[in-house]
Specification:
The structure is a homotetramer of 416-residue chains. The first copy, chain A, is 32% helix and 12% strand. Chain A is of the alpha+beta class and 416 residues long. In chain A, α1 runs parallel beside α5, α2 packs antiparallel against α5 and α7 crosses α8. The radius of gyration of chain A is 22 Å and the shape is globular. The mean pLDDT of chain A is 94.
């Protein structure tokens, strides 16, 4: 093994162990019961997240590259496969919350076992396995964010509104700066991932796009601005809404972002720090694409396309902004307003579809992205719950237009 | 206080504490997660049962009879009221399984606190409070059985099929005795509860009924007999079924009792002792009224009415048969076949309706029974999961005709 | 053939042809489209009723008793079988309204063909066929009422509220008489059908019942009285309601009987004569068992049992009261208040279950009643839409407790 | 008025009357009942289509431009508004099939009245009204196609499988030509509508797109080719399917295109000409986007983007191919394989989203397209049921990915 390869490998191992350790720190406040509950079919129990990312490593790294590897538990492949059809039958997604056993303690033992085995085998693993470990790290980072948003959803169903962590520092309640506009470059530009650094398959191929003159807002829409939309009857005026969105608003009786509560005329929001007063300067979050689109229409603007967003974001530091560094006050804030990264995922007006020339990877990991390319919209930029280091300008997140339990917000765009 | 009153009171206190202690023993194997999961809307989490029976005592005994009583926790009335409209708003039934907090430990502290307070106040409580404690004991006994059937349902959803307790003794697998018939008395008879001993309001008033000549089977229908029904195509022949039952069989693709599994041609059943071979001599259980009625039709017989059942049962010891004495092998067995009591609840052909002259109690506890008198059928006799001492010949249990997660079976009847 | 047999047969033939003719008169106002629409799964298109009663005759009389009979149309057995499992596969009930063809004209031709064939063959038909024709007459009478209630439901969905027939005479708007009570006989009494006259199988066997002292209201509850229940908050007070009923009221947002509309503070009702002002003296109709039971509870009374109703009704003329004689003003009125028969079906507190010793008939017609004996409640007395001549004191109608598109009302009872 | 304006106006009037007349010819075989039935919420009754396109003219042309115009019937605005929120409340879409009245005859009278009024007023109408008449013509053409696909869906629910028209000529059953590929131009190209000719707002603005090298199949995928996909297990292999598509296939038990039936091993298809043998050379139709995408994946190809399709189609005659000229054999055929237009709508891989710079029209007609731009995919080219003259290279049709009751098919594309 050459020296360069060894250095890369050592970096990867550090990254691997740091990622695993961050997960452990994030779940430290969880009881066995907290980690078991599933509050809706879209979300998963914390125990499931902890086990699933471990099953991913056990299966695609250990099982596939260690000839004599014996699974930690024969039932775990059935219990903790998410959606890999090629990997066989699996427990129904909506029934994940019925599994009081294995316990959180057993899952943590499973994690330790797989981590220890990976570390013990490290020097014997082929480079194809290392590539899968790198994928596994990024996969686990995605689940770190999901784990936090899912546990927030669980706690939001509880009439006692438990706080996962204590209150954030007061520096987050600064007012928002006045809204400005960044003029975007137009004509032919390149977007999408290229090069040796890690990216998910859906981020490529890098390709040319044609842009018309546009401008992107220099900060996200705030809670204060959203309140003006509500107060102007935004949720009751069909003209602002996509037809599917209007049907959703009426069917679900939506009157505000998820986790907003009105008591005695004042709005409060529920977050990982518990119930608290609305922070007017912070970006609005927990909104659907439908709400984002209606707000933009009401504001006389529109959502950016993902290409517009990316050509501007490409000049910024993807590790900047308000992202996840560890346990603590995890919620959008009015700090770091200048960054396109972090704080809230920004809905774009782009449907999540393959880039020209896209080819899914071979084998089970080929199911990672491509098969989800219908019905969803692209979000960009990461959020306060995205682990720092995970983000890229080319990064494409995607959700259905009605979903809003992630830290989803919006940044306006307009033609110029 | 007279000596008789004191003796009664002391007996009641012993009964109270013994009941509370039995509950504690029954839940000893539960983890916090086990106690949190709700596997369907009909069932409740174990934690909820534990807290609800305690809330019942705290509310109707302590709050209503101890002027300065402060609730243990202000949110518990909202969380643990079951269906008492008069007691105000409450957490949605189907969402009970979303409450990871309060924890099992906190619920057990709640139990201890209320028990200790009741015991400390015992000599100061008026007789109306003692009557409510007596009701509370019987209420808790009902929830002991529900707790067991609900946790069985949770574990049955788990692909790893955990056993709540170890295996039963082998003496339960004796063959069933040949089926015989008990000729019932006919003409005018009295049924229903009367006298000072405890009974639920729906068991009275005692009243005359007119019976025609009939016979009641001298034991319950067994698993072996049920297998013959299956093998004869019983689940596929509309002629045997009530119309609602046939629709249910087709819609739910029912082919056997709940918890029966077929593997390699052999049937197994899942119970609190885990997965095991079918015990041919034991009473069939976990069947719906629809299945019971179809079997009876197939067998050329019918279900007994509740009056027929009661006039025969009135001559037997209600504490006999296979009932719950404590943790251990809780499942129907082929022992104690002669008793009309215990082993499996027996579906009757009687709709659950008020007896002539029935009046619900005043106040919130008046919601205990009367309001459920539509759409349900009466079951009689108690089961292996009914606490010994809880049963009476006049006891009326009731479930909807499709429900089968209780230990429900059947005993045939016929005209003679 | 003896003279008596001939006379009976001639009477039957007159009855047969009169019944068929009444059906024809009832559907005269229908367009092809009117006769095609199905407004809910519980109801059927008029075309279906017209064809189904004809299929019943064609199948059980002609096919089964005329060796060389050829079906009028080979697809009709599939299209117009209602629920006879023994007669094979059939068109899904909820999809009956998708059949624009065969047309109403074709269905009327089918009717003429079968009628003509029955009449042509009359003297050659065996007595078993005549018995089935008698059943077929009563069957068609039942469908005459269903046809009217189903077309009323269709028109009630139409925002233009078409009137099926013109307005009734004004004599129906007399005030109700003051409510009085009929004391019932108590002790052992006989109910149920016996003897050679026609009755459905579920009306027998005649058997002894034990009655406690009771009284039955001497008229039905009126619209005016119901308004007082509404105005007193009856639909918003859980204490009056069965638990299933309360869930139904909340889920369906029920605030008044079906077909009641409030405009500018005044209630109107929709009927076969169109929208009109509430007739305060007429019996309330289009209420569910849940509503009937809640009203009785609110009024400090209860529903009668079917035995109580029958022992009093047995002394009245079943052809009396307000029943269907032909096209015209078909709706409950304040005329004929003294009769227990006609005007509105009266919900009883009795679940629809078999009488002691009940045995369903052999063969396909054995599916007529017995298989529906779960989940439904008995109604007694017939309504303004029941063909005169169809009613008996022993007659048992049955519907699910939430259903209310029939002419259903209530008569109070109480213990004395 | 200048001579040019008069000529244009005369042309428009001829087009208007020809369109109205074609509608009349298409519905000639309908009975009142046929025209009333609604077989699913996605579809509408024929009567509704006939009235709705007339209401559109009555409202936006007559009411808005004729000061003293009185509506033909005051209830029609409520009954026949489709989705124009700005036009007020309307009858629920899923309940359109409950309206047996107004009758087909009344609707045809309504049509005649509005047509006559438009013609009588023609010379007095301002040019803004003429523009709305032009929109109204194209609107009615869209509903001509929907009317045919909706009535086909109605008849497909009927077990007697009625034929709307007789059989097509035999020339349609020629074999398909061998599949060839058209190489597309790459680099920067213009797509979208521009200029004075009519187009819907969503077809513009005309704008530059960047294309990579690609090829488009020179004919659509045929029934014969689809059979190979089925026989190869295409519907049972998750690897070919989008995740949403795979869930749909399993939930709905999809095993073939809509209207395919298997009997005795042979496939038949149901169409407006009735049930007939599968035409192997004709384009497959009545498939969802999910099926189209899965087929392309199985075939090692992909769906074209709408830009790719348009740049090639721009060189063809949009009035060519197999399109609707009048009553008769309306179904895809193997004739005219060379045209990109007609025969079957071709699913593209493009989500239906606004073009850069898109602005919806002002007022109620602004709800025509823009609000539907979420969750749907673009289809191109028109079908055998699209009125000849209605099609354009820039034309964008759109449906949800699971919908398949239109004449939807596919044409493969690939990267080169």
């Amino acid at each position: 093994m050459g020296a360069g390869r060894i250095a890369v490998s050592a970096d990867l191992q550090r990254h691997f162990n740091a990622t695993r350790e961050l997960t452990a720190r994030l779940v430290a406040p969880l009881s066995d019961a907290d980690a078991t509950v599933q509050s809706m079919a879209d979300a998963s129990p914390a125990k499931w997240h902890l086990a699933h990312v471990t099953w991913f490593l056990e299966t695609f790294v250990l099982r596939d590259h260690m000839p004599d590897y014996r699974p930690f538990n024969d039932s775990f492949a059935y219990l903790f496969n998410s959606y890999y059809e090629a990997e066989g039958a699996r427990h129904a997604r909506a029934a994940r919350g019925l599994l009081s056993r294995p316990s959180l303690t057993q899952i943590l033992e499973y994690r330790s076992h797989v981590e220890a085995t990976v570390n013990a085998q490290w020097d014997r693993l082929p480079s194809s396995a290392l590539a899968l470990i790198e994928l596994g790290i990024h996969h686990e980072q995605q689940h770190q964010e999901l784990l936090l948003t899912d546990i927030l959803h669980v706690f939001a169903q509880n009439p006692t509104f438990p706080a996962y962590w204590g209150s954030p520092d007061a520096d987050g309640v600064a007012p928002a700066k006045p809204l400005g506009w960044i003029e975007g470059p137009f004509g032919v530009h390149l977007i999408g991932h290229d090069g040796p650094a890690f990216a998910f398959d859906c981020e490529g191929p890098r390709h040319q796009v044609m842009l018309r003159p546009f401008a992107l807002a220099d900060r996200a829409v705030t809670n204060g601005e959203w309140l003006a939309f509500i107060d102007d009857g935004g949720y009751r005026d069909a003209r602002h809404w996509l037809s599917d969105g209007w049907a959703w608003v009426q069917r679900e009786a939506i009157i505000a972002p998820l986790y907003w509560q009105q008591a005695d005329g004042d709005w409060r929001t529920f977050g990982l720090g518990g119930l608290r007063a609305l922070n007017m300067g912070a970006p609005v979050t927990h909104i659907s694409l439908y709400e984002a689109d209606a707000y933009a229409s009401w504001a006389g603007a529109r959502l950016p396309t993902e290409a517009e967003w990316e050509v501007i974001a490409a000049t910024q530091d993807p590790d900047g902004g308000d992202q996840l560094d560890g346990p603590g006050a995890i919620q959008p804030s009015s700090a770091h307003q200048d960054s396109l990264f972090g704080n809230v995922w920004q809905w774009t007006g782009s449907a999540y579809r393959p880039y020209p020339g896209f080819c899914a990877a071979e084998g089970a990991v080929g199911e990672y992205n491509g098969k989800f390319m219908s019905g969803q919209f692209v979000l960009r930029g990461g959020s306060c719950a995205t682990p720092r280091g995970h983000m890229r300008a080319s990064y494409r997140n995607f959700f259905y237009p009605h979903q809003r339990w992630q830290f989803t917000g919006l940044r306006l765009a307009k033609d110029v």
